[in-house]
Recover the amino acids of this structure.
């Protein structure tokens, strides 16, 4: 039997399983979300519908987190929770402080996008969201990596035309 250089069969099987599980999960949640919410926006969902939607999204997020490879420095992972913000325009995903790796880099961002993208996709048919925010033990990522925080540049006031017209 010949082998292909650089081909890792166990890793490719893992990737295939993850892809299939993600697609099945997305299809299931998409089907259920459509049945629950129809064309209602999150802020117009009843309290019971909102709680049910959050439970479905939490289960989907837990499935994604369980499939992810652990990053260096991650501690004990707690079950994630997904909630709508009070105004219903964003999702808040609490992953616990154990989810934070040693380095705030591209791999960490990729892991967060693996969580955020299916959530946004699944709610796309219900209502557009303004994004997904992540919390880690109640804090944003900059609590753990303060050196990465960059303040928003100050907004400049438009220049006033100071020319005086003496007609």
């Amino acid at each position: 039997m010949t082998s292909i250089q650089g081909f890792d069969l166990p890793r490719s099987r893992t990737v295939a399983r993850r892809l299939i599980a993600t697609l099945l999960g997305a299809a299931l949640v998409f089907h259920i979300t459509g049945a629950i919410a129809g064309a209602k926006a999150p802020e117009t969902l009843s309290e019971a519908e909102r709680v049910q939607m959050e439970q479905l999204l939490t289960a989907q997020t837990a499935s994604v987190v369980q499939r992810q490879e652990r990053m260096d420095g991650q501690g004990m992972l707690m079950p994630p929770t997904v909630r709508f913000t009070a105004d219903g325009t964003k999702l808040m995903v609490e992953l616990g402080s154990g989810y934070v790796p040693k380095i705030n880099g591209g791999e960490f961002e990729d892991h967060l996008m693996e969580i955020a993208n299916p959530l946004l996709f699944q709610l796309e048919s219900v209502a557009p969201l303004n994004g997904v925010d992540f919390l880690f033990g109640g804090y944003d990522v900059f609590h753990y990596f303060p050196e990465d925080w960059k303040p928003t540049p100050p907004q400049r006031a438009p220049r006033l035309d100071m020319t005086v017209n003496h007609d």
The chain has a mean pLDDT of 77. The first strand starts at residue 81 and ends at 84.
